[in-house]
Write a structure and sequence with these properties.
The chain has 267 residues and is α+β, with helices and mostly antiparallel strands. It is 57% helix and 13% strand. The termini are far apart.
Length: 267
């Protein structure tokens, strides 16, 4: 049995079924990300003075990722346009570009996550704080048993609030060097993962969910670029509609990042 309105527009909505379905799906996505953005605003507004981090994220990498997604939005649009004018070779080229741009975005995001997960803050027994990236630890290092040492590349501050704003002149002037700390001197040790504080929790939640959408969209685009492209020979019009629907999802993912970048990186 042939499925109706896969190519022709429905008389009641004026669009074909798949396009109607993706718009309904994107409406639910707006509610999902809208709730998370609202949570971010409430958490930030409710934070005590000096307790919300600034300058913790790499603006250069964030800018590069923004440009990558903006370019991928263009290439996925050009892929759909190539299908409309029946130039399959150009479609394959532009969709390949979209896949490469998406994978580059995910690679940069993975690097940022690795940077945070290898960045440690140690509360010392003397009341000071050691902050820096992991370098090495002795073979016998065990924090619970208070044995061994750990080495960080960073600096020591008197007050934890000094670590909150990395854009301040004091933070920029701080000299970073290798610091070896004995386990007996450490009261608490943790990396900058989701459990570190409220900011890192909402950061990993928002960007992690967005990265999953990027990954899912990339897999769909790869399918249409590869095995799914066989439909081009049997039903090019329906295949073109599929490319349009996947493009709408991709544009939504790009738009979410346009909001995430200034909210997380520039404020």
């Amino acid at each position: 049995m042939e499925i109706p309105y896969t190519v022709q527009n429905r008389p009641d909505t004026g669009i074909y079924n798949a396009k109607l379905g993706i718009w309904l799906f994107l409406a639910s996505e707006v509610m999902l990300f809208g709730g998370l953005f609202s949570a971010y605003v409430l958490l930030r507004v409710g934070a005590a003075s000096g307790e919300w981090p600034h300058g913790w994220l790499n603006v250069t990498l964030g800018t590069v990722n923004t440009l990558l997604l903006a370019l991928s939005a263009i290439t996925t649009l050009l892929a759909w346009a190539a299908c409309k004018v029946r130039e399959f070779g150009k479609f394959k080229f532009f969709h390949a570009c979209t896949i490469l741009l998406a994978l580059t975005f995910l690679g940069i995001k993975s690097y940022e996550y690795h940077d945070k997960l290898t960045h440690y803050e140690a509360q010392l027994t003397n009341g000071k704080f050691a902050d820096g990236h992991f370098v090495k630890e002795s073979k016998d290092f065990n924090l619970s048993k208070k044995t061994g040492t750990i080495t960080l590349h960073g600096h020591i501050v008197e007050d934890r609030k000094e670590l909150m704003d990395l854009r301040s002149p004091e933070a920029r002037a701080a000299k970073h060097q290798e610091i070896t700390i004995a386990a007996t001197e450490i009261k608490k040790l943790g990396n900058y993962g989701p459990a570190h504080n409220t900011f890192t929790a909402i950061y990993f939640t928002l960007t992690g969910l967005h990265a999953l959408h990027i990954l899912g969209g990339t897999l769909v685009i790869f399918y249409f670029w590869g095995p799914g492209s066989r439909m081009w020979k049997t039903d090019p019009e329906r295949f073109t509609n599929r490319i349009e629907v996947s493009g709408l999802f991709w544009h939504f993912v790009d738009l979410v990042w346009i909001f995430l970048f200034p909210v997380l990186y520039l404020t």
